[in-house]
Design brief:
alpha+beta, 5-stranded mixed sheet, 15 helices
Length: 406
């Protein structure tokens, strides 16, 4: 109950209270859990010799956010083999392709928004991202189906930490989406549907796991959703971009110079500063000591992503929004971990991280240079007990005018 009440700050509050980067407690049905934060903790967490993912993710997250037997829940050769497939989908060309589709769909939406009294940015961007993700991934979707699928996909990452009806709706939507994608995988294998070879639907439908066999259709559907669901989740980051432009007008003025280095810095600070996923889970592979604390095989471990990205030992003025901190920053895979850390190729770091960054930079350009809008009075505070956390107003904008042809 404390975790549900405190959300993103649950671990940070205790790290401060205990003056330690590590503590043990009981969560998720009373099981012992080790919570940790910081660069050294991340190094341990992403050490595959010490940690495994199998059996780590709580059931409520597997049945909503992650799905069963997907890449986030496997280890060893099977994980490395499947990770290579995911990385092959994220080539520079394919990232350029999705950004092109996305910009086209957003610019088309701007002309619709000009005729609307108001727009809820989160809702409309979720629809844009759903349409973009499906086209890019080779998934056929009818125009009158997009809004419904967008709502279902959004619920996957909104319901994992909920209790009651909202959580159960997430489980229902997970089943509906998996059934939809399973049928598409079957159609691809039966040659009733022929997506382009470069697309996620094609590659996952024909992917052979470590045993040399095709994934069963249930797991294939989970992995296709593990491509399109995170793309739709970028909607949260896009709201944070709009919120940052509103809260920090001086930073917005800098972006008007057209310096693309500033776009990169701004986007990275959004990823660091704002809450996305609060933590990730693993289990101890074998006994070891960290800071004289015993980690016993099988123990559940949670790494505080949000806390590490705000750790005072790693970041100067961590609670201030300062894009310039990224100007001369040396990349480290263990202190900046909004989408995981460690080795990108073999580890459990998100394979779509660069895609996310490029989509965010495109969103920033669209909001700064391709449209004018006003932000009316609304409650834009973030409830840090809510996972994921973003404004309840979904960022309302009005009086939208296109600047596409300027």
């Amino acid at each position: 109950m404390a975790l549900l009440k405190e959300g993103y700050l649950y671990m940070a509050n205790r790290f401060e209270r205990f003056d330690s980067n590590i503590f043990a407690t009981r969560l998720l049905g009373g099981q012992k859990v080790i919570c940790m934060t910081g660069k050294e903790a991340a190094k341990v967490f992403y050490d595959n010799a010490r940690m495994i993912r199998s059996g780590a993710a709580p059931k409520r997250f597997r049945q909503t956010l992650l799905g069963e037997k997907g890449i986030q829940t496997i280890d060893g050769f099977n994980h490395e083999n499947r990770k290579r497939m995911f990385i092959s989908l994220m080539t520079e060309k394919r990232i350029q392709d999705i950004v092109r589709i996305y910009r086209r769909e957003w610019e088309s939406a701007i002309f619709r928004w000009e005729n609307q009294k108001e727009v809820l940015l989160y809702d409309d961007v979720t629809v844009i991202l759903t349409k973009t993700a499906c086209e890019w991934a080779g998934i056929p979707i009818a125009e009158d189906e997009i809004v419904e699928r967008a709502g279902q996909l959004s619920s996957l990452f909104q319901s994992g930490a909920k209790i009651g009806p909202k959580h159960w709706q997430g489980r229902i939507n997970r089943n509906l989406l998996e059934n939809w994608i399973q049928k598409l995988v079957e159609d691809v294998r039966d040659k009733k549907l022929e997506p382009k070879e470069e697309t996620a639907l094609y590659q996952i439908s024909w992917f052979q796991d470590g045993n040399g066999k095709l994934l069963n259709t249930e797991v294939a559907a989970v992995e296709v959703l593990n491509v399109i669901r995170p793309i739709v989740a970028i909607a949260i980051y896009i709201v944070f971009i709009a919120l940052s432009l509103y809260n920090y007008p001086a930073e917005k003025n800098k972006l008007l110079t057209g310096d693309r280095t500033l776009y990169e810095m701004f986007v990275q600070e959004v990823r660091r500063y704002y809450p996305f996923f609060p933590f990730v889970a693993a289990r101890v592979r074998k006994d070891f000591l960290l800071e004289y604390y015993p980690f016993k095989a099988g123990t559940l471990v949670l790494l505080d992503l949000y806390g590490t990205n705000h750790h005072p030992d790693l970041w100067d003025k961590p609670d201030q929004f300062l894009p310039q901190r990224f100007k001369a920053r040396r990349e480290n895979p263990f202190d900046f971990i909004p989408q995981g850390g460690g080795d990108y190729i073999k580890g459990h770091r998100c394979p779509g991280e660069q895609l996310t960054v490029e989509m965010m930079k495109a969103s920033l350009d669209l909001l700064v240079n391709k449209m004018d809008y006003q932000v009316p009075a609304q409650n834009l505070t973030l409830d840090m007990a809510k996972i994921p956390s973003f404004p309840n107003s979904k960022f309302l904008i009005t009086r939208i005018k296109s600047r596409i042809h300027e």
